[in-house]
Design brief:
- The protein is an alpha/beta fold.
- The chain folds into 2 domains: about 1-135, NAD(P)-binding Rossmann-like Domain (Rossmann fold); about 135-290 and about 320-335, 2-Layer Sandwich (Dihydrodipicolinate Reductase, domain 2), CATH 3.30.360.
- Helices cover about 35% and strands about 25% of the residues.
- The protein is built from 12 helices and 15 strands.
- It has helices spanning about 10-20, 35-40, 70-75, 90-100, 115-125, 140-150, 170-175, 175-180, 180-185, 190-200, 290-300, 310-330; strands spanning about 1-5, 25-30, 65, 80, 100-105, 130-135, 155-165, 205-210, 220-225, 230-240, 245-255, 260, 270, 280, 335.
- The strands form 2 sheets. Strands 14-13-12-11-7-10-9-8-15 form a 9-stranded mixed β-sheet.
- Strand 12 (about 260) and strand 13 (about 270) form a beta hairpin.
- The model has no long low-confidence stretch (mean pLDDT about 95).
Length: about 325
């Protein structure tokens, strides 16, 4: 049994608590939030994806810490799960790693690639294991895509397009470009990371985008250039009008098939092959959050450092994001 402490009880903190509540190999022994009403469960954040932050964990079961550093010092806590605002990740993660704890850090790993590099460096020297919570690497339908791309089940990839769009989530944190990094860092990062997961570091990026709500880029379209894949494109936005539903989707065109995933469709994942009627692809149940937490707990139990996603991966992803931002602002491609 692994004892867990969760820092931050916003949307992602509550989503992680729900995931832990379903498992028999972990127990949440401590929680922390600076807002007393959150710590007592009087105010609860809402998710933007069905199934997020459902409130399945009983907060009364855990010790409560208004100060996150006090939770890190709790000798019963073995795994520190950091779901705090992005600019706070560095200080709390470094403290948890220095204390010998295992550490799970919500995305983005840090506000800048330089800060992310500090965390990756520390993690590689730490006794405890660490992982950044890039949930799309574990998401049903997206794990299928990773497998068929690697195995070339339908031949080479000719084109891959990704789209993740929503209205602005509201609130002071998400309205501040300085704090959140805008949609390019807080939302679009999921697809940038998955592009990296599928194809590696791009040679260069060419991006267009604009700011609407924050001082950073809130709507971005990027062409990632690779030698061996003709076209890889991703769009990310939280600039849609209020009431616009969150959606994530991909279309990947292989030599011998076309795969289409759409969160809002039923079925969500369809495959189109020559000489065969279009058909749904069977996906595993659950959400990426459940699977990523399960994977990390299994790594800890086995005494094996995570390889599916590392803090170094999180650093490289932010490097790509920062190149996208420079490209959008200058109108020029940026090499990586």
């Amino acid at each position: 049994m692994i004892n867990v402490g969760v820092l931050g009880l916003g949307m992602m903190g509550l989503t992680h608590l729900d995931a832990y509540s379903k498992r028999s190999d972990a127990q949440v022994v401590a929680i922390s939030d600076k807002m007393p009403e959150r710590l007592e469960g009087k105010v609860k954040a809402q998710g933007n994806v069905e199934g997020q932050a459902k409130g399945e964990f009983d907060l009364s079961q855990a010790r409560k810490y208004p100060e996150g550093m006090d939770l890190i010092k709790d000798p019963d806590v073995q795994l520190v799960d950091i779901c705090l605002p992005t600019p706070l990740h560095v200080d709390f993660a470094l403290a948890a790693l220095a204390a010998g704890k295992h550490v799970l850090i919500e995305k983005p790993l840090a506000r800048t690639a330089a800060d992310a590099a500090r965390l990756a460096d520390a993690a590689e020297k730490a006794a405890g294991f660490s992982m950044v919570a890039m949930c799309m690497r574990f998401w049903p339908g997206w794990t299928w895509l990773k497998r068929v791309v690697e195995e070339r089940t339908y031949g080479k990839v000719c084109a891959a397009t990704f789209r993740r769009v929503a209205c602005h989530p509201g609130g002071a944190f998400y309205s501040s470009g300085e704090l959140s990094g805008g949609a390019i860092l807080d939302l679009h990062i999921h697809d940038t990371d998955f592009v990296q997961y599928l194809f590696g570091m791009p040679q260069s990026v060419s991006s267009v985008g604009y700011s609407k709500v924050t001082s950073e880029i809130d709507h971005i379209v990027t062409h990632y250039r690779y030698r061996d894949v003709p076209m890889v494109v991703a769009e990310g936005s939280w600039s849609m009008s209020p009431g616009f539903p969150f959606n994530m989707a991909y279309t990947v065109n292989f030599e011998r098939a076309t795969a289409v995933y759409d969160l809002g469709a039923k079925p969500q994942l369809m495959l189109y092959e020559p000489n065969r009627p279009p058909h749904a692809v069977e996906m595993e149940s659950g959400m990426g959050y459940d699977h990523e937490i399960g994977y990390f707990l299994e790594c800890i139990a086995a005494g094996a450092r995570p390889t599916r996603v590392t803090l170094r991966d999180g650093q490289r992803c932010i490097q790509i994001i920062e190149a996208e931002s420079r490209s959008a602002k200058t109108g020029q491609p940026v090499a990586l």
